[in-house]
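Interim report, section 4.2 (structural modelling).
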Amino acid sequence: MAAASEDSLRRALAEKQAAADAQADAVRVLKSTPGVAPAEVDAAVEALKALKTEAGSAARRLQVAVTSNGGDGVGSREAFRQAVVNTLERRLFYIPSFKIYRGVAGLYDYGPPGCAVKSNVLAFWRQHFVLEENMLEVDCPCVTPEVVLKASGHVDKFTDLMVKDEKTGMCYRADHLLKDFCKEKLEKDLMLSPEKAAEFKHVLAVLDDLSAEELGGKLKEYGITAPDTKNPLSDPYPFNLMFQTSIGPSGLSPGYMRPETAQGIFVNFKDLYYYNGNKLPFAAAQIGQAFRNEISPRQGLLRVREFTLAEIEHFVDPEDKSHPKFADVANLEFLMFPREQQLEGESAKSMNLGEAVSMGTVNNATLGYFIGRVYLFLTHLGIDKDRLRFRQHLPNEMAHYAADCWDAEIECSYGWIECVGIADRSAYDLRAHSDKSGVPLVAHEKFAEPREVEKLVIVPSKKELGLSFKASQKMVVEALEAMSEKEALEMKATLESKGEVDFHVCTLGKDVVIKKNMVSINIERKKEHQRVFTPSVIEPSFGIGRIIYCLFEHSFYTRPSKAEDEQLNVFRFPPLVAPIKCTVFPLIKNQEFDNVAKIIDRSLTAAGISHIIDITGTSIGKRYARTDEIGVPLAITVDSTTSVTIRERDSKEQIRVEIDKVASVVKEITDGQSTWDDIMFRRYPSHTSAQADKE
Ligand code: AMP
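Predicted structure of the assembly:
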């Protein structure tokens, strides 16, 4: 909601409450004043009641405004989550790892249906991205030597600010504590003044920007203590999220478990470029485990310490970021949340992707293309398009080198969760590894005809600089060589007119005086046969576990049992994602039906359709409920020796199919060639749901 209306609701509530308090005082005075007529007291009490009612409804309006799902949104979201998580854990979609030893926070196993869902999601990812774009898939080790992660910046900067409970030593993420405090105040403290509310909102907006000192200052100012014990907290300090190890027995070769898969691709750029015929653009892809020693993981599968990432690095000429297939996605319309809307307190709005790129809201067509493909990927899996938005990073969230970044965020009971990051990281990563390794990770554009170009040549005189700056000579040389063309030409002009110039050397943190004999700066004309450049990289990075968890929530619903005496759980997974595509139930236990079930079993196996046969003697209704609960789309009931019924999970509609056609009908649906509705329409052209057979 717009900040202004929440603000006015807070003001209205404060006014109504003040009026009710004043009236309560007036009633008290009247009651204690001798000789006041009872009618006058009654009238004042009535007025007080009316004011209290008004304050109550103002409070309710504000409550609705501050919680996204209405007044009881938080409670119902948690109840919904509990129902989903109970089902997921009971049916072994996932299991807390090492459970018999009381588990480890942030580590989970996928059980049989979870494993199947994950492998279906990854198979579709490969088909939708790797196959569609002819990407070069690689598979690199998780154990990574320190030098690689030093070059990428992870050793120095992959940190979160942590605070410790001063008595128990329990660790917390400092920004999470501050965020929780501000959010709770905004959602639950309805008597918060509009000024204080604005302050908390501002803190939330700049949270990512706060230094350790600023964060510590805020925690102290608001009196925030350890959530579990209420003990005082230490000052925040950076904690590196990588798991450290050493490679080999000597302990002399430090390494880390990779925090992302991308670095494996960057360091292979030279070979992959050659493999691709020295041509750009091309993309490499990798699916693999990533490890992050999260400080205090919570939110189940959403924040874990080991997870599967699927990453794409699309290498492109920085001077041409068009995409030949952009037209395929240009007409898509979906929720986008550009920077401006966020800064103005507005909400995400439906935008046409083609327009977003042509207006410059999205930096370039290749980035736009991937945003569109990610939208198609997620919605195809079953993510609700109304609970999916693409949010642009605010300037303070984006690395300084990045040209533009968008996160695919999915709304679930925990709020809007970043599930895919899509970033134009410019040439940063390849440059960083070129510098550190000394191996140029560059691309070449060969010219048809040699071109005459002007080149800036800066030659510092090491001898003269050494005489003047002694030990600092190297730093001065590097700073001179790193000058931009504009800086260099200005220096040349000043040296020619004045003979010397003040020059700031960042690495020394001071100005030095450069004399004319210390550097030569010239523009030279050269013939060049090719352009050598560092490609830009556009990186879509998918947190597979987060996508799967959101998919679980978006697919889950309950419906009453036939006898209406209990609520049954259902996952409405599309066939593509469903862990098992169909079940086979002999209606009653007899040899003939068992034989038919065996024939169907063989034909389903031959067609490559995952299925289970349930021969338990329980009622057919119970058997349906059991498979609905793991999201099996089709159930085959063997109720004769010539044909069977196939029942669809969500509509509960049934059709009769001859035994030798069962596998092909099931395959048609689970392969996505036809939907259930297509099949119903073919059989009953004037079919409506009400006319269909139901269980
Ligand atoms: P990042 O490199 O931080 O942008 O992360 C890339 C993707 O990994 C994010 O979009 C998330 O989907 C996912 N991700 C990051 N951290 C975690 C975590 N601790 N647990 C699960 N998924 C994560």
